[in-house]
Amino acid sequence: MSVDTANAKNMSETQRLQNLSEDELSVELVSSGVTASLFVEILRRYQQQIYYHCRNLLLSHDDADDAAQNTFIKVWQNANQFKGDSRLRTWVYRIATNESINLIRKRKPTIDFDEAQPEMADLITEDLYLSGDDIALKLQKALCYLPFKQKLVFTLRYFEDLSYAEIAVLTSTSEGALKASYHHAVKKLEIYLSVLR
Amino acid sequence: MDLENEKIGPAYNAPESYFKESESRLLQRLGIDINSPEASAPKIEAIKPVEVLMKVDTSGIQKRARKQDPLTSKSVGVDKDVDSVGKVEIAPLTFTTNENPEWVNFSAISEETTGLGDSLNITKVTYGDLLNPVVVSVQIESVESEIATIEELSTFTESEEFVEDEAALTVIGIETAIEEVVAEEVVLETEVGEPQEGFVVESIIEEESITSESIVVHEVPESVGLDELESYIAPINAPKAPIIEEVILEEVPQTINLEAPPTAFAPIAGRQKESATPGWLGIAASLAAIVAAYFIWNAIQPPKAEEAMATELQQDEPTLIESPLDEPISPKDTIPDGLQLVEPLIMGEMPKYKEPNVYTIIDAKEMPPRTKRALQDLEDNGLATFDMEDEMFEELDFESL
Q1: Do residues A38 and A32 make contact, with C-beta atoms less than 8 angstroms apart?
Q2: Which of B12, B22, B400 sits opposite A131 (nearest CB)?
Q3: Which residues of A touch B345 (CB under 8 A)?
Q4: Which is the most buried residue in A90, A91, B177, B221, by most CB within 10 A?
Q5: pTM greater than 0.80 (yes/no)
Q6: ipTM
């Protein structure tokens, strides 16, 4: 088989994977196992979402970059353990969330996730790739005054548009608890933002 | 502000170039080359993380142990072939002579004689044997047989020549005894005060002087003092004592120490005799005198004026360093810049905040289905929200998804 033929086959394989829906991609992953093409497709599909998710949780670009890289390394290493019981996106998000939590614990081993971490707001100022939207930055700072659980639920729901069902699977929490957490988070943030304005 | 109706965009906006660079970096870390033909699915199966590591054929490779030097902690490979050739066996530890008699463990010497021509025949007789009648009888029996031998072979009588030989042997024995006292294992030619036993021992000496150089070694326990030992020796050696002493005087050269005594250059005070009064009494007396002098001094001082005391107290107080008023005092809290004023404002706004009807249910897992359904109805109708908190941050289990 010549190189051109291999490249053509590669291109067609990439094209085919790009046209697959998320569910079809999950089936492909479960049935055929992970391949380089399939992994690259997963990477390209979720890379930005995972980076922003990690960035919302960690606030620092470097930390978010590390967490995102580690997330996809674990996706590659553990792809054969994906059984398709949940959506592929949920699975990847869950890995990213755990990587972010591990990174926070590594930075601050005594952290209490039930408490707010207002000192983390310092990480936002003068960091890379800020949008420049003042309200968005204020919201990020206000998020630092939330307990981590509420912050996580709010981020996944508000920024990533995950459904309660997905977040419930992701966080192993009941949907009712998630709704309560989200409600608490929204109310607190509204107060913070009104004061900050 | 209504967050749910006014959607706020993301605060971060990373460029596409970053994601491209991140993607290539990640693929490089994982060793995936998407542009190469090997990146196709069947080929990449080899790159796929395998559960069982590839087995390495180790046949033909000689397994070599390593030995570690205990001093340098460096490990060196062991070559069995070389080691088998160069194997050295160390002979068991033996000793033939010992120049320092203090080191000789006489209890380790068997009662049998060595039998070598160059060595002396040493027979050990314990101190207890001399005191214990049973053992003594054994000794006597053996000695009696020796006497018989002596009688058969006796061509010598107690002549002057024999006395001299005997004396010489006794001197050797005494010298040995003096040395062995230091080592707490007294070895002597001892003779029991009874005339019969004394005769027996003399006979032994006589036999030794005739046949072979045999020495009778008497082992004496440590509990026996030198004086006690000498009291045993004295009556036996009494008739020969003058001869022994003379020989000792002749044999042992008296050394003269020409060095000055250690106290020759000591200061005169050092030579003073110790006082009968203990030292602590003098120290106590000195302290008592000092205390008494202090009280006397205070008593004779005129009383201080109150003003003088007040002045003195003021001088004792540390002077406060006044900080300049124009210097700003920076708050040392952890709230970032721009948010220091938020906290009190939030506290002012808090009364307006109405808590939702949220009820935390801890044992949600163990709740009966009927109750769960009722709670679900309440939640669906917006009457209440139930917070069924349960292990939100448990460790990720890949197989659970």
Answers
A1: yes
A2: B12
A3: 195
A4: A91
A5: no
A6: 0.83
